[in-house]
Amino acid sequence: MPASVPPGPRSRAVRALSLVALTTTVLLATACASGSGAAPEGDPTAAIPLPGPDDGDQGADTGPDTSGGSGDDAEPPDGAGTDETPAGDGPLGTRVVLIDPGHNGGNAEAADEISELVSAGPERKACDTVGSETGDGYAEHEFNWELSLLVKERLEADGATVVLTRDDNESVGPCIDERAAIGNEAEADAAVSIHADGAPPSGRGFHVIAPGEVDGFTEDIVEPSRLLAEDLRREYREGSGMPYADYLSGDGLDERTDLGGLNLSTVPKVFLEAGNLRNEEDAALLSDPEWQETAADAIARGLAVYLMRE
Ligand SMILES: [Zn+2]
């Protein structure tokens, strides 16, 4: 469904206040991490050399994501990458963030197109997939789209330039390689693909996926992406109340080398599997508009913490 974009409940002023607190937190955390309790030397936030541009990507759900590709040839990624807004005032005013809402509402009707093989790094994989859904039929592509818009709204309120990989929730694709390319071309400082998993109903919780080492592809982004993953994991867990995925090991952090969206990215990038749509308890949260607002706050904070490290 076309994204209804509920207006964020928090005012710009409130966000500005929270950002001040956030900045303080980051400074303290960085100072602690630097070792001695002595007065911090230099700029404690200047920690992470970020590699160049990155990309957006999608289609990474672990395991049993009920994606179903079917298809026909690739459809033009409707306006992908065109949703760009100028940087504004605010603490993130010089930063560019790529948000990649996984899948798309038109994919199910375009089996041939989305099953076409595209580069995923060393191997080729399907252009895109359909995604999962809750037992009540709330589709993952819709959840991804709605949550992405809420996160975008928050980051823009803090001055960031936000690029989305798709402009609506009724089109097809774009393919995973193109989602990555959009972030690379935008020279994003951070990129996140937003998904929800389709794991066995008995499992619940979220996980963040960071790129593993893939020779010739991910060397430059592994380290910064790991930091991004850790910041996002911490803020999302605290803010959303969603537990770490109990059907995976790793305390909510996973590393993958088979995702085109990560392998083809030249900018720091992670995937968020926000919860398990097939689990009743998770589904109740994931489909709750109020929870989505809270989750978007947490995701935006995770990204902001990372961006303010540099
Ligand atoms: Zn997905």
From TrEMBL:
The keyword Isomerase does not apply. InterPro entries: MurNAc-LAA_cat (IPR002508), N-acetylmuramoyl_amidase_3 (IPR050695). Residues 180-304 form the MurNAc-LAA domain. It comes from Nocardiopsis aegyptia. SUPFAM superfamilies: Zn-dependent exopeptidases (SSF53187). GO terms for molecular function: N-acetylmuramoyl-L-alanine amidase activity. Residues 1-38 form the signal peptide. This is N-acetylmuramoyl-L-alanine amidase. One of its GO terms (biological process) is peptidoglycan catabolic process. It comes from the Bacteria. One of its GO terms (cellular component) is outer membrane-bounded periplasmic space. Keywords: Hydrolase, Signal. Residues 34-108 are annotated as: Disordered. Its EC number is 3.5.1.28. It holds the Pfam family Amidase_3.
